């Protein structure tokens, strides 16, 4: 029961993160395939850990045959990315130039009327669509095409190189086929990988056709690449927790080398230790930055053996305002 409660709590926090990412920067990322992808990823990870399909089916509360049919159905449809209603409505208005609300509701008659209206409201709020008129004469017009094209291209490619760099660094070596499984156009993927190789951030091995990265450096405060930073933080967090779960918890030596601690410091204006608390992240970044520089300088002068240990340190900090009644706000 305790593990089930923990899983539910982690799923809840993960959905919060996904919702924030899906709406970051005013975009509305399609989520139709997320549930299917979560199921398939769980299936693959259970199999990787040696759990039989019969046992996995029982864990999902399904009969073996039903479980296998579900895997087959989701696997077949995983490549069909589809389009969200938000994207479909935006594209339809863009293609028509202008369209009345009545015409839109007829065109999207197969969708829930309230959902279509909510999407229209959101598109207007985001500035992608303008509205004029009243009553039955309400008309929607798309923001000028050149502006939409610029916005789409920016949203599509901004940060792509950094995110691919992070994927290759954390999960590599990866082949082009491995990376092509991501929701990205093959030509855009080829161009991004070419830029990464030419820039020296990623190395391509002709021997096995794989991409590798020896380092990953995401400049603090950069206007692009936040997606890569989010992935890198989350990957480090997951690696640390899963690594800790697999260790002998009674060993103090291992506990000092793998694991994490969370410290909550309650401070306020005039508190003698407030500045020290606020500046902790900066100080830790500075100290770890110096350590990384020393390690990399040594490694440049000495050959790195095939078997070595990668010490992954994750440092995070946030400020959560509290109300007088102790509640978050």
Please give the oligomerization state of what you see: single chain
The largest sheet, given as strand count, sense and whether it forms a barrel, is: 3 strands, antiparallel
Unreliable stretches, pLDDT < 50, 5 or more residues? 77-81
CATH class of the largest domain: Mainly Alpha
CATH fold name of the largest domain: Arc Repressor Mutant, subunit A
Number of DSSP strand runs: 6
Order of helices and strands: HHHHHEHHEEHHEHHEEHHHH
Secondary-structure content class: mainly alpha
Helix percentage range: 55-70%
What would the principal axes of the Cα set say about the shape? globular
Span of the ends, CA to CA: 31 Å
Mean pLDDT over the residues: 80
Radius of gyration over all CA atoms, rounded: 24 Å
* Count of DSSP-assigned helices: 15
The named CATH superfamily of the largest domain: Winged helix-like DNA-binding domain superfamily/Winged helix DNA-binding domain
CATH-level-2 architecture of the largest domain = Orthogonal Bundle
Strand content: 5-15%
Trace the largest sheet across and list its strands: 1-3-2
Number of domains: 4
């Amino acid at each position: 029961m305790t593990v089930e409660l923990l899983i539910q709590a982690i799923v809840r926090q993960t959905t919060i993160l996904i919702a924030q990412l899906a709406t970051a920067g005013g975009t509305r990322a399609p989520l139709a395939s997320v549930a299917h992808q979560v199921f398939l990823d769980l299936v693959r990870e259970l199999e990787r850990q040696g759990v039989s399909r019969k046992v996995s089916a029982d864990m999902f509360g399904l009969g073996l045959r039903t479980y296998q049919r579900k895997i087959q159905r989701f696997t077949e449809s995983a490549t069909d990315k589809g389009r969200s209603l938000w994207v479909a409505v935006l594209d339809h208005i863009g293609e028509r130039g202008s369209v009345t609300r009545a015409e839109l509701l007829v065109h999207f008659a197969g969708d829930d009327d309230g959902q279509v209206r909510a999407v229209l409201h959101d598109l207007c709020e985001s500035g992608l669509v303008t509205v004029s008129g009243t009553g039955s004469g309400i008309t929607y017009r798309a923001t000028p095409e050149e502006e939409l094209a610029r916005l789409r291209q920016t949203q599509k490619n901004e940060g792509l190189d950094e995110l691919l760099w992070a994927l290759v660094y954390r999960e590599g070596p990866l082949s082009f086929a491995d990376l092509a499984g991501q929701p990205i156009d093959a030509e855009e993927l080829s161009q991004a990988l070419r830029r990464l190789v030419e820039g020296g951030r990623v190395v391509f091995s002709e021997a096995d056709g794989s991409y590798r990265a020896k380092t990953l450096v995401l400049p603090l405060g950069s206007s692009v690449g936040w997606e890569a930073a989010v992935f890198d933080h989350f990957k480090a967090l997951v690696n640390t927790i899963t690594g800790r779960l697999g260790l002998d918890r009674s060993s103090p030596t291992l506990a000092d080398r793998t694991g994490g601690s969370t410290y909550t410091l309650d401070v306020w204006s005039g508190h003698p230790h407030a500045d020290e608390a606020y500046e902790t992240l900066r100080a830790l970044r500075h100290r770890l930055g110096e350590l990384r520089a020393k390690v990399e300088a040594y490694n440049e002068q000495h050959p790195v053996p095939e078997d070595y240990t990668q010490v992954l340190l994750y440092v995070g900090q946030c400020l959560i305002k509290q109300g007088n009644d102790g509640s978050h706000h």
